Amino acid sequence: MPAEQQSSTVRQILRSLAVFAGELPEFHPQAAPGTPQELFTAWLTEAIAAGVREPHAMTLSTAGVDGTPSARVLLLKDVGVGGWSFAAHAASPKGRELAGTPAAALTFYWPQQARQVRLRGPVAPESPELSAQDFLARPLGSRAEALVGMQSRPLDDPKNILAATEESLARLEREPDLVAAEWTLYTVSPQSVEFWQGDKQRKHTRLAYLRSDDGWDKQLLWP
Ligand SMILES: Cc1cc2nc3c(=O)[nH]c(=O)nc-3n(C[C@H](O)[C@H](O)[C@H](O)COP(=O)(O)O)c2cc1C
User: Fold this and answer.
1) How far is the CA of 72 from the centre of ligand 1 (A)?
2) CA separation (Å) from 171 to 128, 148, 205?
3) Cα-to-centroid distance, 31 and ligand 1 (Å)
4) Counting atoms of ligand 1 from 1, which one is nearest the CA of 75?
5) How many angstroms is it from 90 CA to the middle of ligand 1?
6) Atom 1, ligand 1: which residue's CA is nearest?
7) I need a surface site. Which of 57, 89, 202, 223 has the fewest CB within 10 A?
8) CB-neighbour burial class of residue 79 (10 A; exposed 0-12, middle 13-18, buried 19+)
9) Mean pLDDT by 10 residues, the chain (223 residues)
């Protein structure tokens, strides 16, 4: 099919797709709790109850030292007073970007509910003890993979993965408490957290929490 025709077919397919199908929850921002952590936890709980697949998956956006952005999906590890935490290999591209530009944005999307949460702010590594705890709580296969430490490097032959993982598994069998040296738990301490509730009639509701000297200010935003 000629490229032009193919593109118009894709355009037609995209235009025909439904948006916000099914029942959507209500969101009353005037009743929102005092902190974004509380509202996030409530929305996450509702996403789990609604059967959202990988409700703890989020897009982590980072920037290189030249300002070029990169984004990828990761799993959320914790939410607390300090912020939103995820774990990664410090030697991976995301780890290197975070070392050079210690700031990030996280984006969650829960399609069944037409809900998005966005937050951004500085990122800091947690203590080696907390990073080790996170590593040791991972399943054996994930620990073996992290121990290899080759994430995102060019792979010349898929057989190399099997060989390297088997070597890591043998190491973990000998030293079950082994922690990958560069495994790091990072926490984003957001300056702003925005909650977006989609609406079928396009009357979307947006509530931003903005960090203030003594807590959080809440601000509605135009959709
Ligand atoms: C649902 C989902 C969950 C993922 N979870 C992780 C994760 O927890 N840690 C991780 O390093 N990569 C995870 N990945 C893979 C990352 O998106 C990414 O490909 C990888 O971390 C390499 O990123 P980098 O080259 O920017 O460092 C996940 C991907 C998906 C789709």
Assistant:
1) 6
2) 21, 11, 52
3) 35
4) 8
5) 13
6) 57
7) 202
8) middle
9) 81 94 94 98 97 97 97 98 97 97 98 97 97 96 93 94 94 95 97 97 95 97 97
Q: What pLDDT, on the 0 to 100 scale, is given for residue 67?
A: 95
Give all domains of the chain, ordered by start, each with its CATH number: 25-138+181-221 (2.30.110.10)
In angstroms, rounded to a whole number, what is the distance separating the alpha carbons of residues 156 and 150?
Answer: 12
Query: Is residue 48 within 6 Å of ligand 1 at its C-beta?
Result: no
Sole residue written with tokens 């989609």: 198
Rounded to the nearest whole angstrom, what is the distance from the C-alpha of residue 73 to the centroid of ligand 1?
A: 5
pTM of the model: 0.94
The two tokens of residue 220 are 């509605």
Q: Which residues contact 87 (CB under 8 A, 6 or more apart)?
A: 77, 131, 134, 135, 183, 184, 185, 186
pLDDT of residue 218: 98
Buried b (16+ CB within 10 A) or exposed e, 148-186: bbeeeeeeeeeeeeeebeeebeeebeeeeebbbeebbbb
